[in-house]
Each structure stands twice: as structure tokens, then as C-alpha cells.
TrEMBL record:
It comes from the Eukaryota. PANTHER family: F-BOX DOMAIN-CONTAINING PROTEIN, F-BOX PROTEIN-LIKE. Pfam families: F-box (PF00646), FBD (PF08387), LRR_At5g56370 (PF24758). This is F-box/FBD/LRR-repeat protein At1g13570. The gene is LOC110795297. InterPro entries: F-box-like_dom_sf, F-box_dom, FBD, LRR_dom_sf, LRR_FXL15/At3g58940/PEG3-like. Residues 348-420 form the FBD domain.
């Protein structure tokens, strides 16, 4: 009879390998690995990354019970943890504001945490405790459904590179001071804000994502900005009143100091916002690095919005991809386009030298839309594909639009026109 013991290959794995295995598992499964052998017991407690979600505890119809289980699980994990915690993330729809979170953050503030994400469920918003602002080594901070009010002694996060605030209650003064006191900030996301006047001073900022009802926006000092995505929301009845209160040239305030811009995405009322004071602006900045422009819900009956579009694309000599969705009213835009306007803003001799892809959606076939398509087809020598998606509410103009598209001159022999209904 063979009395030799079978080698325990799993237990004899090098520590570095077992740590890699544990790091790839959900925290709940990593903790369960303690039952494999005495050598694996509490090995998870050395993980530098702790990520918690609803799946950390078993399902139950009793929401209060599940919440208590999750609180106990996270508290237990922190008490048993041994070593630095570089990343701490809670992403849950179950857990709401509770005193235990304060204790966790206090523990983390003494643990040199570098990445912190806190996304809580519906209910009472969590007020961020003062101890969070003592986490000086933070490089990433993501907060959702929280109330943010730094203590007077707070002087910023000197190492922070990524800041995401989603549905966070904060005053304009606090958010501006927070941004300007993070000198290394490279990525900023602000979502679901209501009525903010915002001036952004971030010399190292490269990516900016804004979503909400912003009264006014100014990129005060963002010379390295490369990627911008803006969604502006507002009540239809308040649009005219809101824009009449603005002064100056919004195009200059927002895009006048971003020479390194590579990708620009504007949703909803973005072109409407940029159109305020556009007639005051004399093009002086060339967006030499801008390769992708996406503009949504452009009103082609508004000549100022159209002017925003034309000045963007004609001052971006290396533009490669252009996407535009329309929101035209066919009842007011059937008059012929102003020939002088088009020749002034987009001369017949102008060439989109690097433009390869164009997609235009929600098109109604009205004159200004067709004039823009005509310019893009006739002045883009390397164009490969032009996609047109008509508005679903337009039926009688579709055939006329298709016939006119076929007749238009193409500067590129490779240009393909796709006329589809999404």
C-alpha cells in the first residue's frame, strides 16, 4: 500500500501566484478561499484592493437583513485586513447612509488609500466625513449620492488625478476650489448637477465630462484638455429666458483656450449654448489636434447654431470623423439657404483634407442640412463613408432627399453614401 502523501499543489503555490489568483476573484470568493488549507487562511487579508458590491452577501427578500449582512461583511473584512489598502470600492444599490461608513473611511484615512469609490443606493444621501479629506495620497476619488463639504483646513488633494462626482450635493464655490486645489487632476466628471455656474481652473486636465443643468461654463485654464463631453439639460419653457441672461461669447469662454482638443462631444443644448455671442467671435484659434466631433440635436433653422458647426469644422484642419444629429423643424426651414452665408463661412475652395467618416442622423432633408452635406461631399477628397439616417417623422421628403444625394458631386472617388433607417 502506497503511504506517500499526495502533494498539495494549491497550498504549495508561491505567495505571489496565490495573490494574483485572489486579486482576480470577487472579494466574497477570495475570503472563501481560506477554507482550502491553513496556508490559504487569511491570505486574502493582504490584498491591496477591496471591492464590495451587492453580490458579497446572499440574496433575500428582506432588504434590511441584506443591508446588515453587507455592513457586517465589510466591517469584518477591514478588521481582519493586514497591510496597505490601495483601492477601496463600494458599489451597491442596497447600502444607504449609515454611521458604519464613517468608521470605514476613518480606517482608510489611516491606511494610505489611493483609490476610493463610494456609490450608495437610494435613500438618505451620505454626508462625507472630514476624515476623507485627510487622505492625502488619493489618486482617484469617485462619489455618488453624497453631500460634500470640506473642512476649512482642507488644502486639496495634491496627488489626485481622477475626480468623479455623480449626484453630489456641493456648492459652486466648493467644487471650483476642489478642482483648483488638485494640481495633478487629469480627468473630471460631474454628473446630474442643477444650476451651477462653473469656472474650471485645471492646468493638467485632459478629460472633461459634464452632465446637468449648468447656468454658465468657463474653461478658465485648461491648456492640456484633449477630450470633452458635455450634456446640457433644461426645461423647454426656460430655454429662451436662460440664454437671454447670458452675456459675452460662450464659444470663446468654453473653447477659446483648448488648443490640444482631440475629441469633442456635445449633447442636447450644447450647440445652442455655444451659439450665444458667436457673432462676436473672430476665428483665431485652430484646433490642429481635433480629430473627432460629435454634435447632437443641432437646430438647422437657427443660423447661429449652424455657425457654431461651421466654425468648428472649418477650424479643425485634421478632422477625421464627424457626427451630427439634427432637430430641425421642417415647417420653418424649407426656404432656400442664404448663398452668401455659406460662401462666407465655408468657401467653395475650402477643403476637409483628412475627413474620412461622416454620419448625420435625424435628417429632414431641409435646405441647410442638404447644403452642409453638399459641402462635405464636394470638399472632402479622402472621404470614405457618408451615412445619412432620416428622421423617423419625415416620410414625404425621404425620396427627394435620396435623389438629391445621388446627384451631389463627390470630391473623393472612394466616397460611399449610405442611406439607412435606424
Amino acid at each position: 500500500m502506497d503511504t506517500e502523501t499526495t502533494p498539495d499543489l494549491l497550498s504549495d503555490l508561491p505567495l505571489s501566484i496565490s495573490e494574483i489568483i485572489l486579486s482576480l476573484l470577487p472579494i466574497r470568493d477570495a475570503v472563501r478561499m481560506s477554507t482550502l488549507s491553513t496556508k490559504w487562511r487569511y491570505r486574502w487579508a493582504n490584498l491591496p484592493q477591496l471591492i464590495f458590491c451587492d453580490k458579497c452577501v446572499g440574496p433575500s427578500t428582506d432588504k434590511s437583513m441584506v443591508e446588515n449582512r453587507l455592513i457586517k461583511f465589510i466591517t469584518h473584512a477591514l478588521l481582519l485586513h493586514n497591510g496597505p489598502i490601495h483601492k477601496f470600492k463600494i458599489c451597491t444599490s442596497i447600502l444607504q447612509s449609515c454611521p458604519d461608513i464613517d468608521q470605514w473611511l476613518l480606517f482608510l484615512s489611516r491606511n494610505v488609500v489611493r483609490e476610493l469609490t463610494l456609490e450608495l443606493g437610494d435613500g438618505e444621501w451620505f454626508r462625507v466625513p472630514a476624515c476623507l479629506f485627510s487622505c492625502k495620497k488619493l489618486t482617484l476619488l469617485e462619489l455618488c449620492r453624497c453631500e460634500l463639504d470640506p473642512p476649512p483646513s482642507f488644502r486639496g488633494f495634491s496627488s489626485l488625478r481622477t475626480l468623479t462626482l455623480n449626484q453630489v450635493l456641493v456648492t459652486p464655490e466648493v467644487i471650483e476650489n476642489l478642482i483648483s486645489s488638485c494640481p495633478l487632476l487629469e480627468s473630471l466628471t460631474l454628473s446630474y448637477y442643477d444650476g451651477l455656474d462653473l469656472n474650471i481652473d485645471a492646468p493638467n486636465l485632459k478629460c472633461l465630462h459634464l452632465e446637468g443643468v449648468f447656468k454658465d461654463l468657463c474653461l478658465e485654464h485648461t491648456p492640456l484638455l484633449e477630450v470633452v463631453s458635455i450634456s446640457l439639460y433644461m426645461n423647454t419653457d426656460e430655454i429662451q429666458e436662460h440664454f437671454e441672461q447670458l452675456s459675452g461669447c460662450n464659444f470663446v469662454k468654453f473653447l477659446g483656450g483648448v488648443p490640444n482638443l482631440r475629441k469633442l462631444t456635445g449633447h442636447v443644448y450644447f450647440t445652442k449654448y455655444l451659439s450665444i455671442g458667436i457673432e462676436q467671435w473672430t476665428p483665431s484659434l485652430t484646433y490642429s489636434h481635433l480629430k473627432v466631433i460629435e454634435l447632437n440635436q443641432v437646430s438647422f433653422e437657427d443660423m447661429k447654431e449652424l455657425l457654431v458647426v461651421l466654425r468648428l469644422i472649418t477650424n479643425s484642419p485634421n478632422l477625421q470623423e464627424l457626427q451630427i444629429s439634427g432637430s430641425s423643424n421642417t415647417n420653418v426651414t424649407l426656404e432656400a439657404p442664404n448663398v452668401d452665408f455659406w460662401e462666407t463661412e465655408c468657401p467653395s475652395g475650402y477643403t476637409f483634407k483628412r475627413l474620412k467618416t461622416v454620419k448625420m442622423t435625424d435628417m429632414c432633408g431641409v435646405p441647410h442640412e442638404m447644403e452642409l452635406i453638399k459641402k462635405l461631399l464636394g470638399n472632402s477628397p479622402v472621404l470614405e463613408k457618408l451615412s445619412i439616417v432620416p428622421c423617423i417623422y419625415v416620410t414625404e421628403l425621404k425620396v427627394d432627399m435620396l435623389v438629391e444625394l445621388v446627384r451631389l458631386r463627390r470630391a473623393s472617388p472612394l466616397a460611399e453614401i449610405l442611406f439607412t433607417q435606424e
